[in-house]
Amino acid sequence: MVTVSITEKAAVLALSRRERVLFGRPSLSIELNRVAGVSLEPLPDKSKLGVRVTRRPLFGSLVGEWRLGSSRVLVLKGRTGSAALKISLKHPTIDQIWYSGSDAEQLGQVLINKTTK
Fold it and tell me: What is the DSSP string of 38-96?
């Protein structure tokens, strides 16, 4: 389960143990001034995400790092077709983060409120 804490300038997503091993980091920090867009959409399938570059993939799951051309996409939780939060970033290394947790809608509303101020 991903734990989210949001301050005035950043959102920190503390990752689960499995995701820490996959991504090689304990958390993801998103600067709110780099958020380009937030929307709730169905999670795309593997062909639209691109090529998986995560070294230790979870079979039957889309969790991991994906590349499509030069864009880098991180998927936290989720299966194809489930409702997911798509966070588009203006960041030099990460272009999108997909999050499909039980609190995705709430997180989306908070991020929209923080980024529009």
Answer: EEEEEPP-HHHH-EE--SS--TT---EEEEETTEEEEEES--TTSEEEEEEE--SS--E
